Automatic annotation (TrEMBL):
Residue stretches of biased makeup (Basic and acidic residues): 1-17
Gene3D superfamilies: Aldehyde Dehydrogenase, Chain A, domain 1, Aldehyde Dehydrogenase, Chain A, domain 2
Name of the protein in its database record: Aldehyde dehydrogenase family protein
Pfam families, sorted: Aldedh
Annotated region (Disordered), positions in chain: 1-23
Classification via SUPFAM superfamilies: ALDH-like
The keyword Ion transport is annotated on this UniProt entry: no
UniProt cross-references to CDD domains, sorted A to Z: ALDH
Amino acid sequence: MTDMRDLDIRSPRDGRSIGHLPTATEEEVAGAVLTARQVQPGWAATPAAERGAALRQGAGVLRTHADELAKVLEQETGRPVESAREGVLAGVSTLEQYAELGPVHRGRSLLGSWDATDFMVPEPRGVVVALTPWNDPVAVACGLLGAALVTGNAVVHKPSERCPHTGLLMGTLMAEAFPDGVLQTLTGDGAVGARLAADHHVDVVAHVGGTATGRSILAATARTGAKALLENGGNDALVVDADVDPGWAAAQAALGAFTNAGQLCTSVERIFVHEAIADEFLHALVGEARNWVAQPLVDVEHRGLVHAHVAEAVADGAEVLIGGEVPDGPGAYYPATVLTRCTPSMRVMRQETFGPVAPVRVVGSFEEGLAEAVVDEHGLAATVLTGSMAHAQQAWRTLPVGTVKVNAVFGGAPGGAAQPRRMSGTGFGYGPELLDEMTSMKVVHLGQFQPRRKVSTGS
């Protein structure tokens, strides 16, 4: 018999129950944080090379179990197993990068007077709470956990309640590589995350997820003094210039809007296309949408939110060119959807839909599209497709986001960092800069020693 507080996870493909996991109690939350506080000094005192070796061992364990993790992730979120496995291996690669970068993370010396030396030493912040999402849970968690662990922090990890089996399996496998208590995983709903964020013994709350939760975490850390490290999604724009091939641009738009059923933090959420190529672009985008096999969203509740964005846009004058209807049958499926005649006031243009929806607005010039793309409370990423170097320069200098992509909706060098702005969050995610976020710098001033003078006692 299951407890009423248990998480009941159901398949987004057919609605069947996958299993139950307990929700951590207040006592268990407090106990996990206290354990982390107790073991962290010993972990911080472990030589950096040994911490890196432990992280490398944890990465190896996840690589060995990549197929198992991918299957569990598919069951919980509906993400195709091939794509899920790619996400797991991306996380493994991130852990391996931090296993190399962590031991060489260093401070710097400061020029002072001749008889003194100043230097800055990075120290672990202490106890890190990592609250991770359901859409790419292993890859995201590996970034936060890897950077925190390799720099000497102890971690309490709570995966999303939409994929707790995946998060618990990952945490259990990784924990084998570390001393007891250095990495703990708790399962539970948003209330568990809120308790962790509000605990006065926590030093960092790292969260990847929704904006509303991010705001509540900021309020909690303002009271406790913990550092908030947030990536709260975005409303990423795609601006399509007049000089690009409409078919290629449509393929890029479809890739950005429909990959993982639009459930990526950097999915294309709103499209501004130059009127000179708009008709050809829309025709090609509809053709692309037909080629994307419908995938389930994470659950029926989320599908309802996605469809509400579409239905409201249609009621306000938008036109559905393809998709836009909730299919019959079990599961949380939703088709690739293309909307045109969209206006800036529509919720589908103002907020993150997080589904396979491509809302298109036709604009009279590249400058007009860029100006409208700028008007948004988020600041995660944006893409421009253009053959003009001047327009590319104008775009990356103008768009108030952490990442600007030119002529490719996805991609980037390994180890690249991102720093969201405004409602999309605060602090660096990934890259060497995340090691800086997980440490604090201590300035040490060494003055010249003055020996005690000997006092003469006479003859």
